[in-house]
Amino acid sequence: MKIECPSCHLTGTVNEVELPPCGRRMTCPRCKHDFHVEKPAAPPAGARLMSTCPACQYSTFTDEMFAVCPKCGTTAEQHQALARKQQEREQDRRNQEALQRSYRNPDLVVAPPRDLQQPDETPRTAKPIEITAWICLAAGGALFIYAVAGIVTYYSRDWQAILSEPVLEPFSKLYVFAHLGLIPWLVLLFSLYLSAAAFQFGKLRDGSLQRLTEAAWIGIAVAATHQSVAFYDWVTISSSKPGFSYSAIGLFNALLLLALLAAPCAALLLILRSDRITREFS
């Protein structure tokens, strides 16, 4: 049984079987205070005795039997009542599952008790999809700023007059737009499409994987258009008919820059075709 010093409240245990009927005088080993320990009353007839508490696993490791756990206060009857309630809940759950699997009228199926229902789990976006979506959103934002800056630069000055000044025949507005205004507008539209596709991709929307794949191919097409215009300018800037070596150098530079500009889009296509991405949309 559990005892406590009334002076310093030091606790300890003694075997109540060894206590005499009149009790025993004890001395606290800490404060040396003397106090009397009375033997607990015998449990009523028919009361269940136990040597180990089934709730907290308390045990005296002796022949001492107790009806009330001196550590947590649990009685054998209380523990049996809790065990019966637990068994009843488990049986109700099994009966409910068996009823739902049967061919009875589904209108007669009663919803399980609230404490037996599993909490709803909110689906979380897979980490590779979340990282890919954020990278594409960041790239779309950077391209949007670049495109807006290019459009502002294009419309802020009269490029037709500036480019036509050193030449005899002035350039047309279509030529000026194709060389200075077309690429910023294409990049602007591409950035908006990429950002929208990446946002839907991060939310696991239907068709978002296809939209982001299309955005990657559009990015490669924009890069190819950009380098085609650059190669055309490289050839036409020559004062005379360009030779083979001159054109070869321009073509090599255009292909090299095209590979560098299209590399992120190609990497995105490889990521979107990986198993870690496709299985989330299957």
Automatic annotation (TrEMBL):
Q: What keywords appear on the UniProt entry? A: Membrane, Transmembrane, Transmembrane helix
- Keyword Repeat annotated: no
Q: Does the keyword Transmembrane helix apply?
A: yes
Residue spans crossing the bilayer = 131-154, 174-194, 215-232, 244-272
Query: Which residue positions does the secretion signal occupy?
Result: none
Zinc finger/thioredoxin putative domain residues are 1-35
Residue ranges that the Swiss-Prot or TrEMBL entry lists as coiled coil: none
Q: What is this protein called?
A: Zinc finger/thioredoxin putative domain-containing protein
